[in-house]
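Worked example 2:
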Amino acid sequence: MKYAQILPGPIYEIPVVVHVITKGDAVGTPNNPSDQSIIDMINFCNQLYGSTNTYFPAAGNMAKRAPNCGATNGINRVNASSNAIYNEKGIAYPGSSGGANEVSIKALSKWPNDQYYNIWIVWRIDKPDLPPPSYVKGFSYFPGAFSDLDGMVISAVELTYNSSTVAHEFGHAMGLLHTFDDKNPNVCFPNNDCSTDGDKVCDTDPVKSLLSVFPCPQPLAINPCTNNPYGTIQYNIMGYGFCLDRFTPGQRDRALNILNLSRVNLLHSLGAIAPPGQVVKPASCTQISNANPNFQSGIGPEEVTFGDLKFLSYGYYTTVPGNSAYYDLTCNLGTDLSAFGSYPFTVTTDGPNLQRCKAWIDFNNNGIFEDFELILSSISDVGTYTHTSTITSAQLSDFWVAYNTKLRMRIMADYYETPEDTPDFGPCDQLDYGQTKDFWVMISKPLPVSFSNFEALTKSGILSVKWTTASEHNSDYFIIEASRDGVHFSQMDKIPSLASNGISATPLSYIFQRDLKKDAGAMNGIFAVFIALLILLRIKKNKIIRASGVMGLVVMMIVLACNKKEMPAMKTTDEGKLFIRIVQVDKNGAKNVSKVIQVTQE
């Protein structure tokens, strides 16, 4: 298989949890390595992946939050001394008849493999057909393994020196194969088509196992599998030998492609980030089992894409170990959304059966999934079907939305045949055959406008107010307000936003000017009219004044007053101060007020 080139970019960080299965040995002894030894093991693995030979942007990070959202250092220690077989032989190598049962030992301490990569450190891996003094350093599973097996097992002795074993096994976890023939390690495998033969990577030459060759072959030594010099293949981490320290670009590209396809959940897990100060609010109702728990259905939400979330899983299968009718994934898996965005939402259901799929977001964060919080309701018309919906900015910015906090999202899918035989279900109902999964969603609503500059000054009686917005979202217009005391403000004027459709990611500059001398003159004119009216009324006190004349004067005063935008006296003198603020109004009518500044005089 050929793979697209992966360009340098962000490091793919994978939460790692290490389970130390002991025989009761003290911490710090060879069979129960110290915390620092475990941290050094992970750091050395990351060092090999980040080496300059071939930059491999993947790193294992020790878990900082447990599945229940509690704090952790990512290391769990379990005393298995009560298991007599483990005490005597260690854990069984896959397919081997010796040693303690692998599934049973792993079950002593195991975290969800869709949120963490599990590593078990054991005192010994038992493989009876391996003659002493040889021993198994470790083993791991390719992507797609069942959750009761998936992960890596490492012999504790590998932590006593800088071993490449963890990097090698982690390569398998990302889909990399050996550079030699597993079945016949001392025979060269065919290499007619590099994309389908051998390790299926075109920049790794075929090679035999070099486990019995010491020291490592020199670069100019002849590789019997190619009849050309070894070059650097003898140093490849996915081979066997004594000087393994690098990958090839082709291995990197294959691993990252498979990682993004088959272990994408780990890339979205928050397991390596410290636990949040506040967990997602529990739902008021949750059904943890379906009505037919022994029925092999395969029904349920298997793939979810929403914002940055990409999630892969199984539906409800009784034959899949650890499979459940309900998963609470809200500690580690979810997505951030913007209240001003619009997002496609897809859920894929699989199998031969038609399925009804529904989803809700607890927008108001009251722990109850209400009717108006339904975001998806769909019935498939074929077995494998992608249910789609679009979550709009109107939904994400409605007045009841609780912003900047993690909300619970519930996705449910169940068998569907006819409306009569398979009635609709709600968020609290028990499903017949299906599955429920809960995730977190955080809806962020930044201020519609970010001010980067704001100033006001007067010069020769001209007031100038200037401001710059660093960005605008959904912005409609600005109101300029003035005050003599900095507390009680009146509107001077309003001007429209310069942002196209109210949205701008680049700075926009605004200026508002007003001649305060003219304002003062106009106010004096209004006052003069008012005095004239009073004098007229005084002169005519014994006569009947025509109502139309008085009303005309009153209307004239009202018009003049309205033209001044309800302004206070705008004169700035040593006797008083003038304060300005900007009120931003978005297209929904919501208002956001800037800081208050005092006008300076030049």
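Confidence is low (pLDDT under 50) at residues 1-8, 522-575. The domain at 449-601 is CATH 2.60.40.2060 (Immunoglobulin-like).
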